[in-house]
């Protein structure tokens, strides 16, 4: 399955990045030296953000680029209070959207896709690996029933995850 990251920012969008490719949007935010709050915590979201800055060929190091050093929730609160841009995971954004003013500006781009996968570790690597149980878990995750449940999971009325193994007949 996968979900997405989302680039959030103030409604007035001072960098004018609404509906712009996320990598180009980051260049525009940096060029305008706009406020940007990063998690700065070496999390998966922070690593994706750093990857996007690298693809944009931008070193995020201007006065209004701040690292919260905190989780996604506190980082969103900080960005909202500052009316700054921020990269967030869709689930946290959906949980916080009613209590903040930031809006999605760049969404649904390949560069914002956040894949989830499961794989069975080779049992020859460690004696405690239970191959039968591991295979059962993967079979459960890719089953049509579980894939339908994944597709049906919503936060605030919005689908959060998109299954990749769901048989198209369903």
Description:
The protein is of the alpha+beta class and 170 residues long. It has two domains: 2-112, D-Maltodextrin-Binding Protein, domain 2; 116-159, no CATH class. Helices cover 36% and strands 17% of the residues. The chain contains six helices and eight strands; from the N terminus they run E-H-E-H-E-H-E-H-E-E-H-H-E-E. It has helices spanning 22-31, 44-55, 72-82, 90-96, 131-142, 144-152, and strands at 2-9, 36-38, 65-67, 86-89, 103-106, 113-115, 154-155, 158-159. Strands 1, 4, 5 and 6 form a four-stranded antiparallel sheet that branches. A two-stranded parallel sheet has the order 2-3. Strand 2, helix 2 and strand 3 form a beta-alpha-beta unit. The longest helix has 12 residues, at 44-55. The radius of gyration is 19 Å and the shape is elongated.
């Amino acid at each position: 399955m996968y979900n997405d990251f989302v680039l959030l920012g103030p409604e007035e969008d001072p960098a004018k990045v609404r509906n712009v490719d996320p990598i180009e949007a980051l260049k525009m935010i940096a060029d305008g030296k706009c406020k940007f709050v990063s998690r700065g915590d070496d999390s998966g979201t922070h690593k994706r953000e750093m990857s996007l800055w690298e693809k944009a060929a931008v070193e995020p190091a201007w006065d209004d680029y701040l690292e919260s050093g905190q989780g996604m929730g506190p980082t969103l609160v900080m960005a909202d209070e500052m009316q700054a841009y921020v990269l967030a995971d869709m689930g946290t954004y959906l949980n916080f959207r009613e209590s903040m003013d930031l809006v999605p500006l760049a969404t649904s781009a390949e560069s914002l896709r956040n894949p989830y996968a499961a794989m069975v570790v080779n049992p020859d690597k460690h004696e405690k690996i239970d191959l039968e149980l591991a295979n059962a878990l993967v079979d459960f995750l890719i089953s049509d029933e579980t894939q339908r449940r994944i597709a049906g999971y919503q936060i605030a009325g919005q689908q959060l995850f998109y299954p990749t193994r769901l048989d198209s007949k369903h």
